[in-house]
Each structure stands twice: as structure tokens, then as C-alpha cells.
Amino acid sequence: MATPDTTPTTAGADAAAVTENADLLRFATAGSVDDGKSTLIGRLLLDSKSIFEDQLEAVETTSQSKGYDYTDLALLTDGLRSEREQGITIDVAYRYFATPNRKFIIADTPGHIQYTRNMVTGASTADLGLVLVDARQGLTEQSRRHAVLLSLLRVPHLVLAINKMDLVDWSQEVYEKIHREFTQFATKLNIPDLEVIPISALQGDNVVNRSENTPWYSGPTLMHHLEHVHVASDRDLVDTRFPVQYVIRPKSDQYHDFRGYAGQVAGGVLKKGDEVVVLPSGMTSTILRVELFDQEVTEAFPPMSVTVHLEDDVDVSRGDMIARPKNAPKPSQDIDAMVCWMTNEPLRPRQKLAIKHTTRTGRAMVKDIQYRLDVNSLHRDQEAGELGLNEIGRVQLRTTVPLLCDPYSKNRTTGSFILIDEATGVTVGAGMINSGS
């Protein structure tokens, strides 16, 4: 039976799933205005031969019409007319490319502080964060803010790309100074893996090909690091979490008694014969089989989308979660979370909103705003009575339905949620759960 959002059937479904998940890297770029994020992505696309000739010709033509004496590769990513006119990134631009070693999804996020919500959106699913700094400027307030946001979002890998090294004559002293300052700053944050690479996005040095201008640098090129950074172990393979997205009941002669539970594995490993519990009902059963598209697999793990069949005819519906009996999330209605507010109307206590957590929806009321976080200085303003547009703070929520959640630090899928304006249907906030009770 077909399952939503699954990969095509192959002879070795398990092996294909492992390869597909291991070979995909999601990364988000961040940096101050004019640090060269869009140019760097354009260089990656060009040097990895991931753009068509007509695209390159269009960029060359536009660059000439603007009077540039070089091809402005940033035009490959700054798709909005307003972005091109201002020379800045506003929206989150997603780009896809591949090399023989790996597939990539890039989220080119804006650098302005007024677009913090866009950066949070783009980086929330990233495996790696790429922060650019201008070698002439060194670390700026925006550079530190971007690092704080990536740390807050628990992005497990971070690359500091020191760009425009050609404009400081490839000075090793400049590189080491910025490296030292950022490493010292990073000790205050949760950054488990850091790589610092000197590059010139405009010229292509150390982006895809190693530069002869940095004989003093022995580390990898940016592309080599992106191709080989290990992300498979970043996912939680211990705590089984399977939010049910859809109950498949064909009710046809061919599949008369078919009942499958479709969704994306959020944590742990699902295998035939595993004893499981369905939450929030607490009913237990055993996994009869796991299917990827229409083929049975021996096991499923994040982020595979599969269909699970249970031996017992238990009541399971969308929004329920399948877990292990001795390692299940505790249903929680009192939620303590960090919230990024994304709309002009401020978030205030007693406000009522819709909440979506994995596949479960309900309503929530804001009980309290404990503090507003200054993402530049990490100062906690405990006198703040509201959160404005692009502000982040610690918020207490009370939900109408129990959420089957984990701390965000443990599982980024079951530890996150969005808040929705019930009147307009617009997403107005994104949350990272600290704890629930």
C-alpha cells in the first residue's frame, strides 16, 4: 500500500534508505550584509557544475548590464526583485545541488536582524550552519548573533567561513585572530563541532578547490568538509518516536483487512516484533511489519517515512504516537519553551493560539513570559511583558491536549512546535521545548 512522502521501491529498500539519508546534508548560511553568502552559494553551484548554461548566461548578462567587471554569482540565489535591487538577501532561498558524494539542500538565510524569523525558519531543520564573516571586518555583532541562534536551534555542526581573504592579502595573522576570537566566544554556546575555513567566494579559493594562496592552512576545503561531515549519528536512535500522520484503511477487495499507520520516524528504530505502546491511550501491541512504500523493511529510523502495521486491532488515529513501553514521552499540557515570535502583533500573557506539535494539533494559552533573550549579549530581560516581532523569549504555555514531547535538546522533531493565529491561519511563532509536565 502506498505511503505518503516515501522513496521509490528498490531491490534493497533498507540499503537505499540508509544511503539516501546518509548522503543528504541540509545546511543553512548566515552572515552580515555583504559578507558574501549568496556569492558563496553561487560559487558552490557553479564549481560543482550544478547550474545550466542558460542560467549562467543570464547572470553574466545581468552583471554586465549593471556595469560589474565580474560575474555576480549572488544573482543565482537572490531571486526576489527587491533583493536584487538592494543587493541583500531577504527571503529564505532554498537551493538543491549534488556532487558524486552527497546531495545538498541549502537554506540561504538573511542577515538583517529584522529577518531573524526567516533565519530561524531556514536553520530549524539544518544539519550544519555556515556562518560567513568578512576578513576585513572580523567578528561583528551580527556574526555573534547568528552563532547564538544556530546554537539555540541546536544545529550540531558549524562552519565559520572567513571570506574575502584575498582583500587582506591572505594574511595568516588575520585568519588566526578571527579563529581565536570566535573559538573563545563559542565556549559560551552549545557548538559541539566547529570548523574554521579561510576562503574567497568571489575567486573560488578553498571553496571547491584548494587554494595556493593559503600554504599555511592545512584544513579541508569547504566542499570537502560539506561532503564528509558525519551527520547520521546526530539523530536520536535510542528513543523510539513515531507520530502517526495518517491511518490507511483502503476498504477494498484487494486490501480488505488492511490497516496501516503512516508517518515519519522522529526517533529510535522500529523493527518487526518490537513491543510498542500507543499514546496517549496507553494501549500496547507488537509491530507486525514495517513497510517502505509497498515493500517490507527490516527496520526504520529517522527520517524515514514508513507504514507500521500492528498485530492487535488497537485504536490509533492521527496525532497519536507509537513508542516503546519503557521509554515513552510523558504527555504534557504545561509546556516550558523558548519561542521565536514572527508577527507584528506582540505575544502577551493570556493570549490564546492554535498549536501544532508533530502531527498533533490543539489550542494553547500563554501563561507567562519569563524573560526575553537578547541574542546579541545573551542577557535575559526578566521585566519583559511581551515578545515583539523577531524576538525570542522563554514562555510558559498551557495546552488543551497533552503533547507527547521531548526536550528540544534531545529531539529536535518532538521538541519543537509552531503557534498559529486561529483567525487567519498564519504561523506566528516557533517554539523549542525545554520541558513539559
From TrEMBL:
EC number assigned by the record: 2.7.7.4
This protein's name: sulfate adenylyltransferase
CDD domains found in the cross-reference section: CysN_ATPS (cd04166), CysN_NodQ_II (cd03695), CysN_NoDQ_III (cd04095)
Domain Tr-type G: 22-251
Entry keywords, A to Z: ATP-binding, GTP-binding, Nucleotide-binding, Nucleotidyltransferase, Transferase
UniProt organism field: Nocardioides potassii
Superkingdom: Bacteria
Record has Transport as a keyword: no
GO MF annotation terms: sulfate adenylyltransferase (ATP) activity
Keyword ATP-binding included in the entry's annotation: yes
Name of the coding gene: cysN
